[in-house]
């Protein structure tokens, strides 16, 4: 495809362009060819496509024949700010750092979450944070073990027994001999089915 583009071979050039087989210089020749006012009627259907391609950055400047260099990247322009604007930007940054530091420091201390926590053991209220945290860790490990067993498929009976026991413990605080309380508890119980 070393010969110039003309009205007889433009279809070959277009096919090669659409197959990504043209060089940048050949593409520029196509842009120039399809910018001519006297195109054959069959070639008119390609004019909008090549007009669009020639409008892309780096392609249109060669049509005028003025600049064949690659376009320079645009510079980042920082608008000048007044002193009070810089102060507000600095204040926002300080506030964001303070919030982030506060969130990070409180997330590092599990004791702060459970400082008001307690456990009941043998009817006694225990508020020692070390004992509370160790009990929470033990409960988490036990729950993870049960969930792992449940995922294995052999713990569905164990899960139902656990669910029944949880229902019994929740209703133990109520006077189930009273028919009104028993009716209220049984009609508002949650079903997981």
Tags for this entry?
elongated, 193 residues, two-stranded antiparallel ribbon, 8 helices, mainly alpha
Main β-sheet, spatial strand arrangement: 1-2
Number of distinct beta strands: 2
Mean pLDDT: 77
The Cα radius of gyration reads 39 Å
Order of helices and strands: HHHHHEEHHH
Largest sheet: 2 strands, antiparallel
Proportion of residues in β-strands:
under 5%
Q: What would you say this structure looks like, in words?
A:
The protein is mostly helical and 193 residues long. It has helices spanning 10-18, 24-34, 47-55, 83-107, 110-113, 129-152, 156-171, 179-187, and strands spanning 119-121, 124-126. It has a two-stranded antiparallel sheet. Strand 1 and strand 2 (124-126) form a beta hairpin. Helix 2 crosses helix 3 (47-55). The longest helix has 25 residues, at 83-107. The mean pLDDT is 77.
Provide a brief overview of the structure.
The chain is mostly helical. Helices cover 55% and strands 3% of the residues.
SSE topology:
Layout (H helix, E strand, L loop, with lengths): L9 H9 L5 H11 L12 H9 L27 H25 L2 H4 L5 E3 L2 E3 L2 H24 L3 H16 L7 H9 L6
Antiparallel strand pairs: 1-2
